[in-house]
Amino acid sequence: MNNPLKPALDKKTRKFKEYNSYNLQSNNYYLLPFRFIRLDEQNELLVNEVGDFLIVSSGTVERIVNKKLDKISDEELYADLIAAFFISETPIPALLDVISTRYRTKKSFLDHFTALHIFVISLRCEHTCHYCQVSRVSENKKAFDMQRHHIDKGIDLMMKSPNPHITMEFQGGEALLAFENITYAVIQAKEKAMLLNKKISFVICTNLAVITDEMLKFCKEHEILISSSLDGPSFIHNKNRHRNGNNSYELAVKGIEESRQVLGFDRVSALLTTTNLSLLYPHEIVDEYYKLGFRNIFLRPISPYGFANYNERKNHYKTSEFLDFYKKALDKIIELNLRGEFFREDYAAIILRKILTPFPVGYVDLQSPAGMINSVIVFNYDGKVYATDEARMLAETKDYTFELGSLDTHSYEELFYGDKARFFSDAWTNESLPGCSECALQSYCGADPVFNYATQGTFIGHRPTSSFCERNMAIIKHLFLLMEKDARIKTIFRTWITGNN
Ligand code: SF4
């Protein structure tokens, strides 16, 4: 019987050419997978599948792709491209195993699954910060504190994580208002971790206003880290973080000093939230952190979720305004480093670790697959389980899209591997998201379906109008250009990721 396809294949126009005609003889190299982007008028950035990069002069990508490179006259570039797996002289590179090992290393944060377990131990708070996504000013412990049976169930689920090193983080409201719950949870979790031979770390997120000597003693005994909040000098901090007496800043500074004395200098960190007011004072904010003895700062934009969304005048700003603030603050930080002081910007350091080392980064907001469930889970005060901290903030405005289930009714398997988790997984890798899949910065960026949903209404999102994309693209390109233009800055950046100051 005649093959019905044969006539079509025999047509001259449809016929496959001989193998060698796909293998240009004059410039005998093969293209390996890589992506590229223009950094500025003079520079193009090439990035391969494992995040190795080359910065070349404008027009070079076009020459590489069209096989116009000459092995002799472009000797140095040609050798760099071969060495960094951008091109190969054989169809399958001889060192393919090296690339696959590097790729596995980059994704090794997935090896052990969820590490960070957030327990929202109470929603009560004595502050009324205008950007607060969640807290409640209330004496009603029953309604807004986590119940013991939920703490027990949360610990049981946490122990089921395959991860040998888990972190239990207590959040609020103001977590220290439910300190008796924290002591109970820490002692229970430690006992269970010991039986299962797991390493466990504890973190308390607190504004430090109500911390006491007794609390610090307990934190010392159980090696608990303190994560506090500091928005800058008092005129910014007290404007952002309201409490009776208007003394949030004074209490935070006192609490930081006392915690350092008891726990050790490096056991106390601080987080900045950037409001409209902060945007006017990038240098003053950096100076304040430096003055208080911090040697790092995390320049964090406000999360566009929950109640923060309601206060347009104080909490809404354009991404371009944040980027302007970020760059000015970063300039100030670099200036400090050029004077011989070690001072690190943490968001830049996370990205730089992705750019300059083969290792993964344990930062849940810049991962692919996304940090949700894979790296972090939230057990809320009312027993509900959420995919991320931001997901529970959405729930506070009655949007339960990212609720995975309840500690009362759902098993580990249902929560972590259930239908909802599988549904979200469609949108949690930037390797497959429209716009991200061909982006040169993909290896240094991440995927965030919760952010996409909260800001754009879909899990997949729309990159050309995404503030997540705009911010990350601008910051990553800025870091590359800083390193390209000044070798001293590249050296400084290396100290930020090695800690060698
Ligand atoms: S979010 Fe933007 S910068 Fe990040 S990988 Fe996607 S397209 Fe690139």
TrEMBL record:
For this chain, one GO molecular function annotation is:
oxidoreductase activity
Which key words tag this protein in UniProt?
Answer: Iron, Iron-sulfur, Metal-binding, S-adenosyl-L-methionine
Where does the Radical SAM core domain lie? Answer: 121-267
Q: Does the keyword S-adenosyl-L-methionine apply?
A: yes
Claim: Metal-binding is one of the keywords in the record: yes
Gene3D superfamilies assigned:
Aldolase class I (3.20.20.70)
Q: Which cofactor does it need?
A: [4Fe-4S] cluster
Signal peptide span: none
Name the NCBIfam families on file. Answer: rSAM_paired_1 (TIGR03978)
Spell out the PANTHER family in the cross-references. Answer: ANAEROBIC SULFATASE-MATURATING ENZYME HOMOLOG ASLB-RELATED (PTHR43273)
Instruction: Give the record's family classification.
Output: Belongs to the radical SAM superfamily. Anaerobic sulfatase-maturating enzyme family.
Which protein is depicted? His-Xaa-Ser system radical SAM maturase HxsB
